[in-house]
Protein 1
Amino acid sequence: MKPYYESPLSSRYASDYMLRLFSPDKRYQTWRKLWVALARAEHKLGLPVTAEQVAQLEAHVDDEIDYTAVAAKEKELRHDVMAHIHVYGQSCPDAAGIIHLGATSCYVTDNADLMIYRDALSYIRGELAAVIKALCDFAMEYRSMPTLGYTHFQPAQLVTVGKRACLWIQDLLLDLEELDFVIDHLHFHGCRGTTGTDASFLSLFDGDEEKVKELSRLIAEECGFSSMFPVAGQTYPRKYDCRILNVLSAIGQSAYRFANDMRLLQHLRQVEEPFEKNQVGSSAMAYKRNPMRCERICSLSRYIMADALNAPMTASTQWFERTLDDSANRRISLPEGFLACDAVLRLMRNVTAGIHVNEKIVERTVLEYLPFIATENLLMSAVKKGGNRQELHEVIRRNSMEATANMKEGGSCNLLDRLANDPEFPLTREEITAVMNPSDFIGRCPHQVEEFIASIDVGEANTETVSINV
C-alpha cells in the first residue's frame, strides 16, 4: 500500500513515454541542456565563458540529480531555479560562476516547457495517426455491410458499418489538421531577459544588438527550433497554451463521440469493444459485458475538455510583462492534459484494433426495419404501375402505423403482408419482395468509403504494442 496520493494518470493510464517526458528528471535535465546551450552561445560570441566550462557543464547534464540537496536549497532560498543552479554548480565547480549568466528564470522554465510540449505533441500525433489507420482498415473491411442508420437515435435509412466509421475518422482528421498547425507554429522563447527587452544581454555584449539576437538564434537552433516568438514579456505568450490545450480538447471531443457511439451500439448488441477471455464485467452480475474501455475514453475525454478551460483563464489574466499566478496552474494543467490525451488515444488504439461486429444481429436489425425503409421505393414502383402518389402515400402511412402498433404489442413487422393484402395497393407480394435487397438502400456508401480512405495520408504512426489496465 502506497502511503501517498498518486495520480491515476500516472499509475493506470498514461504511457511510459509520456510519463518519462513529464518527469522531474526530464524537466530538470532540459534546464541543464539550456544552461549548456546558453554558455556555449556566450562562449562563441566572445563573453568570458571558456570552452572548458562549457564542456564541464555538458558532461554533467545527465547526472543523477540530488533532489534532497535541491529541496534543502529551495527551502533556504524559496526559489526552485536558483536551487537547481546551486546544485548543478556543485557538480561543475569550474563553471558554477557562469551558469545562467544574463538569464532570468523563464529562460529555462519556459524554453524547457516548449521543448517538452513539442515532443509531447509529436508523440500524440503518432498516437492519433495510429488510431486513424486502424479505423481506416475497419471502414474498408465493412464498407459494404448494410446497417441501420440512426437520426435522433431513431431508426433511419440504411448506411454501412464502414461508412459510419468514416464519420469518426473525419472528426479525427480535423483534429490531425489542427494538431499539425500547432506543431508547425510552435516557437522558441529564447533569451529575453526579465521583461523581454534583452537589456541584460545588451549590457553583457556592450550594446551589440546583433550579438544579442544571434545569442537567441544559436540557442534556438541547438534546441531544435527554427523560429521564435517575435516579441515576449518575461514569459512566452500564455495564449499559446490555449492552442495546445484546445487541440487536446478537440481530440477528446472526437474520442468521446466515437466511444459514446460504440457504447450505444454495444447496448444494441451490434458492435462490441474487445473483451478478454477472463475479463469480469461486474462483481455481482457475472453475465455482464460492459463497454468499460469506451466508458473510460469518455470519462478521460471529459477531463481533457474541462482541463482546457485552464489555459484561457490563465492567458486572460496575465498582467503586463508577467504575473506568477500562471505557474502552479500550468504545472498541473499542461502535463495532465497531455497525459490524459495520451491515455485516451492508447485506449482508442486498443479498441479500434479489436472492434467486433455481430454481423447476424446487424443483419437481423436491418431486416426488421427494411420494410419501413423500403416504403419510398415501393411508393415509386406503385406509381409506375399507374397509381396516384398521394393516395398511395396514405395507404403506406396507414399500414405502417398499424404494423408499428403490432410490433409494440409484441408482434412482428407485418407491413409487407399488410401492403400485399391491401386492395388499394397495386403491387403483388412478389413485386414487393423484389425490392427488398438491403444493398439497394445504402446509396454510394461503399464507394464513398473507398474514395475517402484513398484520400487519407496521416504519415508516421506509433507502432509499439499497447497494453492497458482492464
Note: The two ends are 20 Å apart (CA to CA).
Protein 2
Amino acid sequence: MPGFSSKNSDLGRIVNFFEILFRKGISLNIKVSASILNSDLSAIGAEAAKADIAGADWIHFDVMDGHFVENISYGAPVQKALSKRLFIDTHLMVTHPHTQIKLFAESGSNMITFHVESESDIDHTINKIHRAGLMAGLAIKPATPAESVFPFLEKVEMILVMTVEPGLGGQEFLAYTLPKISAIRKKADEVKPDLMIEVDGGITGDTAPLVKKAGADVLVSGSYLYKAKDMFMAMHTLK
C-alpha cells in the first residue's frame, strides 16, 4: 500500500509485512496450528483468539490421559468453550482414542488425530472419525518407523510426525526425525499427493525451514508463538 505511513499501528505493521512478501515473491502456503498447551490456560479462550488474530490457521488442542503419556492436560468440556469459528485440530495422546471420538466431535473438533501406537484398532478409529463428519489424522512418536503409517496413508487426511517425545510442551526439536518426514512425503506423493503432513515439537523460526524442506505443510507451534514479543511476526516467520 504505497504511501501508508502509520508504522507504529498494527495495520501498518501488517501492510509492511505483506509488502515485503509480495516483493520477494514469498508464498504463505504453510499452515500453522497454534498449540494452546503452552498458553495461559487460565484464559484459554482469549489465548486461542489471540493466535487466531495473529494469523493461525488452526488451534492445536492436545489431549493427554496420564496413561499413554505421563502428563494430563484437558478434555472435551474445555475444548467446547473455544470459539466455534476456530478450526480445532485435536490431538489425542490417549491409550483408547476410539472411546473419545464422540466426545470431541460434539465439543467442536474439525480434525481428530490419534496415535498409531495407541491400543485402539486403527481402521475402526479412522472410520469412526469419518462417520462423525471430521477429518482424520494419524500420529507417530519420534522412535516409530515411518513405515508404520504407510498402510493408512490413503485412509486419512493427515499424518502427524512428533518431533519431540509427546506429553510435555517446550522440548527441543529432535533432528533425527527429519528423514521420517521425507519418507512419508515421498510415499504419500505416490499414493495420496494431497495428504497433509503435520509436525509437532520444537518448531521455531530456525527449525521450520528444516521440516518444510523435508515435506511438512502444517506446523504446530506453542512456546515459540506464545513467548514471542510479537506473535504476529513469529506466526508469519513460520509461514
Note: The CA atoms of residues 48 and 137 lie 21 Å apart.
Protein 3
Amino acid sequence: MNIKIRQGKLKGSVHIISSKSNVHRLLLAAALADKPTEIAMKGHSEDIEATGSCLMALGSQVESSPKGAYVTPIIAGTKRVAILDCRESGSTLRFLLPVAAALGQNILVEGKGRLPERPIDTLTELMAKHGCSLNSTHLPLEVSGKLMGGRYELPGNISSQFVTGLLFALPLLDTDSEIILTTKGESMGYISMTLHTLSLFGIEITKTESGYFVKGGQEYKTPAYVQAEGDWSNAAFWLCAGAVCGEMTCTGLQMDSPQGDKAILDILKQFGAVVEVVEDTVTVKGGNLHGCHIDGAQIPDLVPILSVLAAAAKGDTLIYNAGRLRIKESDRLAAMADCLTRLGISVEEGKDYLLIHGGKRKVSEEDVWIDAYHDHRIAMSAAIASIVLKQGVIVEGAECVAKSYPGFFADFIRLGGGADVL
C-alpha cells in the first residue's frame, strides 16, 4: 500500500497506545504464572498478535477482555511439537526460544519478512551448550530437549532480547544460573523493563558485577491485574513533530517508566525544544532547534525519527554508536540516509553513525517517493518528515506500520496531516 502525504500542520493531543515492548513481556509472564492474569492495554499490533498466538501454541489461552487481554497460564506436559509462527517479531522469537526450551517443549519456529535473516546464532549456540538440540542457527528452526541451568556468557552489545529471553527462562529451571555479559550492554532500558516485569510476577533476579544471577526453582505469581504502560517509542514521533510544527501533547505516559526511549525528553531539550511534563502528559513546543550529538547505543528505536528532527534543525547532528540498527527490520541507517537524501538533506553514512547536515534543503515541486523498506519505524518517520520538511511524499509499503502502530495514519490525519491511499 502506497500513501501520499498531503501537507498540513500536526498539532493537538494524542493518547498513546500501550508499549509493544511492555505488552510482550506482560503476556509472557502471565502465560508462565500460576493463575490467570488480566492485562489492561490500549491498542494492538501485529507483533503482539504474534506473541499471543505463539503462547497459545505452547498451551496458554490469550483472550480479549473489556480492558485488554485475559491470559490463562500454559498447561505444561504436552508431547506434541508446537509450531511457533513469530511472523516478523524479533521479540517473540528471541523471548520464546529459551522459554519453550525451559518448559521442555519441542518446537518448530517459523517467521517471515526479514526475521529469518536476523541473527540468533548467539542464542542458539548457548542453548545447544545447555541441553537443547537444534537443527539450524536460523529460521525455520526445530528445537528439542530441555534447557539446563549453568553459566551463560554472551556479548552485551548483540541484542538485549537474548538477555531478556534468558531472564524469563532461567528461573523455571531446577538449578541456578548466571548470565555473564562479556562486553558493555546496549539497549539496557529494555532489560530494565524485563526486570521490572519479572518483579511484578514475583521473580527475583540479582544484578552482579558482570551480569545477573538467577536462582532456579522459582514460580511466577500473578498480580491478577496489571496495567500496560504507554509507548514512549511511538510517542516520540508526535513529540518530535511538535518540536518542529509548534506544539504537540501526548497523554498516557508513565514518567517513572523503565523504558529506555523515555530519553526522548532529554534529547528534545538537547535539540532546543521546550518540554513540559504534568503527571502522565507531555507537551513539546518548538524552539530554536539546533544540531547536537546523540549516542544511539541505548535508544535504537528512536534513531529514525531523531534523524528527521535533525534534518529540520539548524546545523549538524551526529548519531553514533548505532551499528546495530543495520540488523533491525531494515538496515535503518541506510534506510534513513536514503530517505533524507531523497528529501534534499545532506547525509553522511558511516558504519555505525549518521552525520546529518540539517536546516538547508531545496524543496522539490514534485512528490518524493520514499521506500519504507518493510519497516514500521521508517514508514512513520517518512510521514512525519513530509510534514516537518514541507515536502510532498509518497510512502511505499506504508502498511508496515501495523507491526507496532496500526492506527498511526488515523492519528496522523486527526492531528492535521493529510494521507491518501494511492
Note: The chain has twelve helices and 24 strands.
Protein 4
Amino acid sequence: MKKAILLMIRLLLIWLYSYVAFSKWFAFQRFVHDMHNQPFARWLADTLIGVLPPLELAVAVLLLFPRLVTWGFRLSVLLMGAFTLYVGAVLLHLFDRVPCACGGFLSGLGWGQHGAVNLVLLGVSVAGWYLHKNREMKEMHA
C-alpha cells in the first residue's frame, strides 16, 4: 500500500514540475513579463527566469529514477517551501504591492487559495520524502 502511495506521489510531482517548467518555456514572454511584475529586484527576477524552469524540470527527472528519488523529494520540498513562503509574504502584505497571480492551472485562484494549494503540495512532497526514506531504511535492514 505504501509503495502504491509513494508511486502516486512521485507521479503527481513529476507531472506538476514538468507541467510548470514546460508551461514557462512554451509561454516564455508571458513568464518573463510576470516575473518582472513581481515585487522584487529585476536582477532577482532575471535570475529566477533562468533558474526556475530547469530546476523544476530537474525535480521531475530526479523523481523518475529510483536512485535519485531522495534528491528529487529534497528539491521538491525546498522549492515548494520557497514558493509557499513567497505566497505567505504576499498574504501578509510584506510587499509594497500585490503582484499578479501565477499562470498555468493556478491562474484562476486567489492568493489564499494559491497558498492552500502550495501547502498541500509541500505536504505531499514531505510525505513522499518521508515514505521513501522509511522504505530505504527498511530495505537496508532487511
Note: Residues 111-141 form the longest helix (31 residues).
